[in-house]
Design goal:
Elements lengths: L30 H4 L10 H9 L10 H14 L19 H15 L5 E3 L8 H5 L7 H6 L7 H4 L4 E3 L2 E4 L8
Parallel strand pairs: 1-3
Antiparallel strand pairs: 2-3
């Protein structure tokens, strides 16, 4: 029997591969390449109960419904350069413009880090601010009267009321205006 044996060492599969001679560019450094991926933690239902009760040692993963919701939240939170405007309009009344505007504004304000302002431009005494905040004291008409002094979003916030993180600019309540 040979007293010397040929032993080949290999890295265990849990280690990342050894750095190559050509490391690539800075553009190759992304969250996915730098940070090790962890399994998503469940936040609802029995899966959360098991995860919490085991102190995080047992992770059954997220359900299909929670995974689908997480995908939607990532889409909502995706970076968008610059300011954007979304118009919700219809010629017919009573079709849900106020409801859609409220839900869209609240969703974007809650799940994004951006400031979101909902402007009620209904010519027939809109009710967006009244439904969301109950305040209609300051309106878009008063802001337009002082438009020369408005130079920032902070100045606009003096004319808005808050519904959670959503800033709401009320419509003029007098249709004659």
């Amino acid at each position: 029997m040979n007293e010397y044996q040929d032993v080949t060492t290999t890295r265990p599969p849990s280690y990342p591969p050894a750095p190559s001679a050509n490391p690539g560019s800075a553009a190759d450094l992304t969250d996915d390449t730098i940070v090790r991926a962890r399994a998503e933690r469940p936040t609802v239902g029995w899966r959360r109960a098991v995860f919490s009760a085991s102190g995080g040692r047992i992770n059954p993963g997220v359900s299909e419904e929670e995974a689908a919701r997480n995908v939607l939240l990532r889409r909502i939170r995706r970076h968008l350069p610059g300011a954007h405007q979304i118009a919700v309009s219809s010629l017919k009344g009573g079709v849900g413009k106020t409801t859609v505007s409220a839900v869209l504004g609240l969703t974007l304000a809650e799940h994004r880090g951006d400031r979101v302002v909902a402007l009620d431009a209904n010519p027939d005494a809109g009710t967006l601010a009244d439904r969301l905040t109950g305040e209609i004291g300051v309106t878009v008409r008063q802001m337009l009267d002082n438009i020369a002094s408005i130079d920032s979003l902070t100045a606009v916030s003096h004319y808005t009321s808050l519904a959670g993180r959503l800033q709401v600019l009320a419509s003029e309540q007098d249709p004659a205006m």
